[in-house]
Amino acid sequence: MTDALVFVTYIKATPEQVWDAITSNEFRRHYFHGSVVETSWDVGSQYRSFGPAGQLWGDNEILAYDPPRLLAHTWRSLYDPELAAEPSSRVTWTVEVDAAHPEVTKLTVVHDQLAGSPRTAESVRGWSFIVSGLKTLLETGEPLE
């Protein structure tokens, strides 16, 4: 089993636009299965995610917040009892300007600390679709879902 899943994409958008897509519920609901997040974005604060019908999907914590380049938070899925029974893992979003192509932003999403959470590791392989959906939405204005 892997301890970390890494997803990298290059987006024709500014780092600020990518950051807004990550942190704004207006964008998020279009590429992240209709979910929204409630948080103050302060390090140590709650990071609660809710499904489209308002059901609590995750009750996590902000670990790092440095706009527009770094967001890290814990991850524990509450929508499934087996996933909720596993220890928290971590998701880190890194936004970087591509030096060779300044009109392109590199987005890296790392979901790690998964060694003790095998069911979570299997379920979060859907990050590929999430990251692709974010890219598509920013570049075309149309969601994948």
Automatic annotation (TrEMBL):
Residues 12-139 form the Activator of Hsp90 ATPase homologue 1/2-like C-terminal domain. CDD domains: SRPBCC_CalC_Aha1-like_GntR-HTH. Pfam families: AHSA1. Belongs to the AHA1 family. This is SRPBCC domain-containing protein. It comes from Microlunatus ginsengisoli.
